[in-house]
Design a protein that fits this description.
Layout (H helix, E strand, L loop, with lengths): L3 E2 L2 E4 L3 E2 L2 E4 L3 E4 L2 E2 L2 E4 L5 E2 L2 E4 L3 E8 L2 E4 L4 E2 L2 E5 L2 E7 L2 E4 L5 E2 L2 E2 L1 E5 L2 E5 L3 E7 L2 E4 L2 E4 L2 E5 L2 E3 L2 E2 L4 E4 L4 E2 L2 E5 L4 E3 L2 E2 L2 E4 L3 E3 L2 E4 L2 E4 L2 E2 L3 E4 L4 E3 L2 E5 L6 E5 L2 E2 L2 E3 L4 E2 L2 E5 L6 E5 L2 E2 L3 E2 L1
Parallel strand pairs: 1-6, 2-7, 3-8, 4-9, 5-10, 6-10, 7-11, 8-12, 9-13, 10-14, 11-15, 12-18, 13-19, 14-20, 15-21, 18-22, 19-23, 20-24, 20-25, 21-26, 22-27, 23-28, 24-29, 25-30, 26-31, 27-32, 28-33, 29-34, 30-35, 31-36, 32-37, 33-38, 34-39, 35-40, 36-41, 37-42, 38-43, 39-44, 40-45, 41-46
Antiparallel strand pairs: 16-17
Length: 294
């Protein structure tokens, strides 16, 4: 606890302001970071921790660090976390990813870049965090709080109106870029900033939902711009339930502000697609209030 970093940290992979890589129990409290963290060729960069595969607990954290990466999984605090908790943190720095040429599965230029965590899996919890800085990537999956969550939770997080989330490829979300797993949850979040992406699947709260729940969340005073053909939504860009067991639910959400794009624009969801029988998507108790769809 009570750690402070102003260092310039550079590594080929797994770079963090305090810890590069951890696979054990790790607790960090009341610690600040104002330095620069860079990965030059590999993955996992974070203002605090590059990669955590153990039991992580981070709380009461303040960061103005600049995180730059040329690989996948970059976050203002953590590059990738596999379980654990991050709570009551504020990020005012910048996360930038210049990824090119990285392929995961069938996708190219996978960046997983976000203001707090690049990639969260295995029941990770990110709650009561605030982003006032910027996120920018040349690759896929950019978000204000967590780029991708897989059976994990983002709760009571806010992206302020001073923040911008931008990319020049697919999947951009004000809070989360991609949700997978029926146990994934985005709840009680608020987006006030700007989403700017060239090749959209973009939403002010979540870019794309394959499974999970988005509940009790608001996008307000949002300037939201996309280019070219894609899907843009005031809450979610697209719902794409890819398997018969996938369940996606949007409940008690509200969208304000402006949503602007070339094609397939929705006040709540831009596009819903079920390629297989048995999958389910539901939108309940939602509102679009004074929004401008262009």
């Amino acid at each position: 606890s009570d750690c402070y970093s102003t260092a310039y940290v550079s590594s080929n992979a797994s770079a963090g302001g305090l810890v590069g890589r951890s696979t054990s129990s790790l607790t960090i409290e009341k610690s600040n970071s104002t330095g620069t963290v860079t990965t030059t060729t590999g993955n996992y960069s974070g203002g605090l921790v590059g990669f955590d595969g153990g039991t992580l607990n981070i709380s009461n954290r303040y960061s103005t660090a600049v995180v730059t990466s040329s690989g996948t999984c970059a976050g203002g605090l953590i590059g990738q976390m596999e379980g654990g908790v991050i709570s009551h943190c504020r990020i005012e720095g910048r996360v930038e990813n210049n990824v090119t040429g990285i392929t995961l599965g069938s996708e190219s230029n996978v960046a997983y870049t976000a203001g707090v965590v690049g990639y969260a899996i295995n029941g990770a919890l990110i709650e009561d965090c605030t982003l006032a800085g910027d996120v920018a990537t040349m690759g896929r999956y950019a978000a204000g709080i967590v780029s991708r969550i897989d059976n994990s939770t983002v709760r009571n997080c806010t992206v302020l109106n001073t923040a911008e989330v931008s990319n020049v490829s697919h999947y951009c979300g004000g809070i989360v870029a991609l949700m997978t797993g029926n146990d994934s949850l985005v709840d009680g979040c608020r987006f006030e900033g700007r989403v700017n992406t060239s090749y959209p699947i973009a939403g002010a709260i979540v870019g794309s939902v394959t499974a999970g729940k988005v509940t009790n969340s608001i996008s307000t005073r949002t300037s939201f711009t996309t280019s070219y053909e894609g899907y843009s939504g005031g809450i979610v860009g697209q719902i794409y339930t890819a398997t018969a067991s996938d369940i996606a639910i949007i409940d008690h959400c509200a969208a304000y502000g402006q949503v602007e794009g070339a094609y397939n624009i929705g006040g709540i969801v831009g596009y819903i697609y079920h390629p297989v029988a048995g999958a389910y998507a539901g939108i309940t108790n939602c509102a679009v209030v004074g929004s401008k769809l262009i």
